From TrEMBL:
InterPro entries: InsJ-like_HTH, IS150/IS1296_orfA-like, Trp_repressor/repl_initiator, WH-like_DNA-bd_sf. GO terms for molecular function: sequence-specific DNA binding. Gene3D superfamilies: Winged helix-like DNA-binding domain superfamily/Winged helix DNA-binding domain. Residues 12-64, 131-181 form the Insertion element IS150 protein InsJ-like helix-turn-helix domain. This is Transposase. Belongs to the IS150/IS1296 orfA family. Pfam families: HTH_28 (PF13518). SUPFAM superfamilies: TrpR-like. The lineage of its organism: Bacteria, Bacillati, Bacillota, Bacilli, Lactobacillales.
Length: 228
């Protein structure tokens, strides 16, 4: 196992945390005093709140997490709007960088490893242009619930996520297979006029919703400016 070292004793960590919790000192002040960055102090505070003074003890081994905990934390971040810090607090994750690594692993379609097994995660598969359009339509129709699309079409998170982003930015042309003209032409032929029309209606609807939201924001900004 890899070992972790620190130049701060548990007493120093405890002192830093209690100073912050007293409300008399800011994070910036305490961070400068102990020669640490604010993220390190935030981690100490979170660990202390979760496990008391035991949470501030130096760990001699890397902490292990169950695969299902990793998956739930990642989905809370990607699907439920949790911040990195909120996820770390909820699941008692040692640092935000650990969570970032899990997110990168998940979005690349790879599986989480843990003692005793793996989490079940869908891997990517080959798709046609028509399938990609259908999957994007499904994801958008379900408020970008990517997990539903993953379960229904047996694809990876990274696939559906990237297709939706490409479609929103550049339309259906962005979903074409760029590896060769023959493949692209063949995929275009599989798309009916009705399907093309449905996609265009969907794009126009999303564009109108965006413009409506933009107008509301601009009106609110105008109101704020007039009050000044």
């Amino acid at each position: 196992m890899s070992k972790r070292t620190t130049k701060h004793t548990i007493e120093e960590r405890y002192d830093a945390v209690t100073k912050y919790l007293s409300g008399l000192y800011s994070r910036i002040t305490i961070s400068k005093e102990y020669g640490i960055d604010e993220n390190t102090l935030a981690n100490w505070i979170r660990k202390y709140k979760a496990n008391g003074i035991d949470g501030l003890k130096e760990s001699r081994t890397w902490k292990r997490y169950p695969a299902d905990l990793k998956l739930n934390a990642v989905l809370d971040y990607l699907e439920n709007g949790y911040s990195l810090r909120k996820c770390c607090d909820k699941y008692n994750i040692s640092s935000r960088e650990v969570l970032r690594q899990w997110i990168r692993l998940y979005t690349s379609g790879k599986s989480f490893k843990t003692t005793g097994g793996h989490a079940n995660m869908k891997h990517g598969r080959k798709t046609t242009f028509k399938e990609r359009l259908e999957i994007v339509q499904y994801a958008l129709a379900h408020d970008k619930d990517y997990q539903k699309a993953i379960d229904k079409y047996k694809i990876s998170y990274s696939q559906v996520y990237s297709w939706v982003r490409k479609f929103e930015k550049d339309g259906e042309v962005a979903l074409q297979d760029k590896r060769g003209k023959t493949v692209k032409d063949r995929e275009f032929e599989t798309l009916s006029e009705t399907e093309r029309l449905k996609l265009e209606i969907l794009r126009l609807k999303e564009r109108n919703e965006y413009l409506e939201t933009e107008n509301v924001i601009l009106k609110k900004l105008d109101e704020i400016e007039r009050r000044r």
